[in-house]
């Protein structure tokens, strides 16, 4: 019985609840997300888009279990219940790049009530290169820029791009068991980096990537006719060789590349600040007090990397907001018609939505 009742909790149910709240009440749009970590990200993304007529409520897709993930949010049960007043907000993963090859990919790419990150996952936004200097300042309270994160991640992305396209090719054409994301991660991971001479790290990476690409070319000669078209298609979707890192598997990028890189830099910045305290202290008591105060004020780099919001300047983040903003404009039209006594139905709104062309959005980073 409870299952039947839960199946009635759909977009039309939320619309009816909005009408019962009265004409002057803000209409609520329920936004389902994949996990606890996603609640904060999507809440911060959606709040600036609220209007005097509309607000968002972010929640997990199940109130009766601890099941999480995209499959729960889309395919299992929630997908058919989505609508104007009930949307899903998910990580794009590879589903955006697969362009409808799988059921999840079809939902992500073609369901007008599903909004996705475009980048692989939220962790990729957290690793957004132009914001990493600020993350180091947050973690160390030292504004000395020891390392050019943007330049390094640009060169890193250009180096791994050919192998990344091969990995997408493997998932597109059913060879992911032969060359999985984990296999690619073992090749492109960075254990240590000398931030004074990062070219040594990049040269070693380039050697590993080229060796694997050569093996894949010998292993899959049939890819000669499909690899280049896939490369061109990915570029048309907004990907560039300079921003490959945004489309790698999120926790691989976070845990295996960016966090270790920032950890090395932040350790040097902390030692530099502690050396300054030692040099400027008049006596040992002052030295110990200042050192204790500094160590109490700084924070772990992983914590700051997860909590910062510098990625909101990213064009891809703003593209998500633009997608949702276009939906808000249409939803507000329904609210206006309802309040004015117009007999326009949700079917009319759906027809208007489908017939309105989406405005082009600049995805260049």
The 3D shape can be described as flat
| SSE string | HHEHEHEHHEHHHHHHHHHHH
Helix/strand-derived class?
Answer: mainly alpha
The largest sheet, given as strand count, sense and whether it forms a barrel, is:
4 strands, parallel
The poorly predicted ranges are 1-6, 342-365
Instruction: State the share of residues found in helices, binned by percent.
Output: 55-70%
Radius of gyration: 24 Å
Strands of the widest sheet, in order across it, are: 2-1-3-4
Tally of separate domains: 2
Portion in strands: 5-15%
Helix tally equals 17
Number of distinct beta strands: 4
Through-space gap between termini: 50 Å
Mean pLDDT: 84
Task: Provide tags for this entry.
single chain, 365 residues, mainly alpha, 2 domains, four-stranded parallel β-sheet, 17 helices, flat, disordered N terminus
Any overview of this molecule?
- Strands 2-1-3-4 form a four-stranded parallel sheet, sandwiched between helices.
- With 365 residues, it is mainly α.
- Helix 9 crosses helix 12.
Architecture blueprint of SSEs:
Blueprint: H1 2-7, H2 11-20, E1 27-32, H3 36-46, E2 54-59, H4 70-76, E3 86-90, H5 95-98, H6 103-110, E4 114-116, H7 122-126, H8 132-140, H9 149-172, H10 181-188, H11 198-219, H12 227-236, H13 250-280, H14 284-297, H15 301-307, H16 315-339, H17 346-355
Parallel strand pairs: 1-2, 1-3, 3-4
Helix pairs in contact: 8-13, 8-15, 9-11, 9-12, 13-14, 16-17
């Amino acid at each position: 019985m409870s299952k039947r009742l839960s199946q009635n909790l759909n977009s039309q149910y939320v619309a009816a609840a909005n009408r019962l709240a009265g004409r002057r009440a803000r209409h609520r749009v329920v936004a389902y997300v994949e996990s606890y970590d996603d609640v904060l990200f999507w809440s911060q993304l959606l709040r600036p888009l609220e209007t005097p007529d509309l607000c968002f409520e972010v929640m997990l897709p199940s109130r009766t279990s601890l099941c999480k993930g995209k499959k729960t949010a889309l395919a299992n049960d929630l997908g058919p219940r989505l609508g104007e007043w009930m949307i899903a907000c998910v990580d794009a993963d590879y589903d955006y790049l697969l362009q409808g090859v799988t059921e999840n990919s079809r939902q992500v790419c073609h369901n007008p009530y599903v909004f996705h990150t475009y980048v692989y996952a939220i962790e990729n936004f957290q690793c957004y290169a132009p914001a990493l200097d600020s993350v180091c300042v947050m973690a160390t309270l030292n504004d000395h820029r020891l390392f050019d994160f943007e330049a390094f991640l640009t060169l890193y992305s250009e180096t791994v791009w050919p192998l990344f396209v091969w990995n997408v090719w493997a998932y597109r054409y059913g060879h992911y068991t032969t060359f999985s994301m984990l296999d690619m991660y073992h090749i492109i991971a960075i254990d240590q980096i000398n931030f004074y001479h990062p070219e040594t790290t990049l040269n070693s990476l380039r050697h590993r990537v080229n060796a694997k690409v050569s093996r894949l070319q010998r292993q899959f000669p049939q890819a000669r006719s499909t690899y280049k078209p896939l490369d061109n298609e990915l570029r048309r979707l907004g990907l560039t060789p300079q921003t490959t890192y945004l489309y790698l598997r999120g926790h691989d990028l976070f845990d295996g590349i960016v966090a270790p890189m920032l950890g090395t830099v932040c350790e040097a910045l902390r030692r530099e600040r502690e050396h300054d305290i030692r040099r400027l202290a008049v006596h040992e008591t002052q030295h110990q007090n200042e050192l204790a105060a500094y160590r109490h004020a700084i924070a772990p780099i992983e914590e700051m990397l997860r909590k910062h919001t510098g990625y909101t300047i990213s064009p891809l983040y703003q593209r998500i907001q633009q997608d949702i903003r276009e939906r808000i404009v249409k939803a507000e039209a329904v609210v206006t018609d309802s309040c004015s006594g117009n007999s326009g139905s949700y079917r009319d709104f759906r027809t208007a939505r489908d017939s309105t062309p989406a405005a082009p959005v600049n995805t260049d980073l």
